[in-house]
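User: I need a structural model of Aminotransferase from Burkholderia theae for a docking pre-check later this week. Nothing fancy, just the predicted structure tokens so I can convert them on my end. Input:
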Amino acid sequence: MDSSVYLSASIRAQLEAQRGAGDDVIDFTIGNPDFPPPPEIVDHLARSIADPGNHRYAAHESAGERDYREAVAGMYRRRFDVTLDATRNTLALLGCKESAHYLCMALVEPGDVVMICEPAYTTYRGNAALFGAEIHAIQCRPEHGYLPDWSEVPASVLRRTKILFLNYPNNPTGAVMPLDAFEKAVALAHEYGFVICNDSAYAELYYDAPPPSVLSVPGALEVAVEVGSLSKSFNLCGWRLGYMVGHPGVVERVLRLKQFTDAGPFPALQQAGAAALRLSDTFHRDLRARYRVRRDRVVDGLRACGYDVFPPPAGMFVWARTPDAERSDEHVARLLREHRIACNPGGVYGLSGTSFVRFALSVNEALIEEAMYRLGKSF
Ligand SMILES: *Cc1c(COP(=O)(O)O)cnc(C)c1O
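Assistant: Understood. Predicted structure tokens for Aminotransferase:
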């Protein structure tokens, strides 16, 4: 589809080849949490699976069970002080990754503009391209805290925009968008008539103040949706359980498309997922503390080796400029060959990432120590 996909694939192939040859490669490439989910939620799923009523089509099919959607709305009330109507403003998703696909299908005609704030998760670009959109990438720079500078976007582009994809807290940078920046985006969406989708997959993994929701902005429900999931918040990536919340018209249009493709998540998963969304914050506090240890170790270790590191205020990645601004694909290939350390080349996430690399924090502390030791020896 685009060269970044092939680039990742070639690095993965090199990694597999080295592992096959007996190399002990330490893999920082994939954001796939290795921490366990809450044990009581796994128990809840076991009980839900044993319920014979749970093996038929879900009562509300694609939309999601009422109780799951109430739990999503309840979480928004507690966490963000945002009031949502479970029926009009919420929708179950099979993980939030699918949202970009349905949003583009629902809202984009060939030639319409889709705006993406880069560096960005590759799903937005892939789906926008799939539906014939003209992609306008806003390059977000470290000196602006990786936030978009709207003055760089011509009014002619804003006028043709159908969707603005935001992802805060951000993968790969960990940047958080403060409420006043969300306010600016919402004002532009009102002025130019486009829809905002903020991907809040990392909303619970933060190290400073809790990141806000775009829906906290007054009037946001008329122009914005937010998507999230249990994948990173509860270490449940494999469950494929997420949600879309916000603008009732957009939620309705996505639901209409989903009715042709799925019948909603497995009811037992929705019941255990609702219980997870109602858990106390203790689980997240512990999870953040564990990620913080890893984050600090990787940030310090990379800095000691000459990387210019943006200390992430949120998320599960460390984004770093390579020493001497070496090109990211060459740097990554060299780290793998010489140090048996795998990380992602920043160019995968957009043009502005070509001298950056991304380290995922889904590697245990002992392996992080070993990786930083290997790196440190070479400097
Ligand atoms: C991991 C990740 C997701 C998670 O997607 P799910 O489909 O919910 O598992 C979504 N967005 C971003 C930016 C991610 O990094």
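Before docking, keep this in mind: The radius of gyration is 21 Å.
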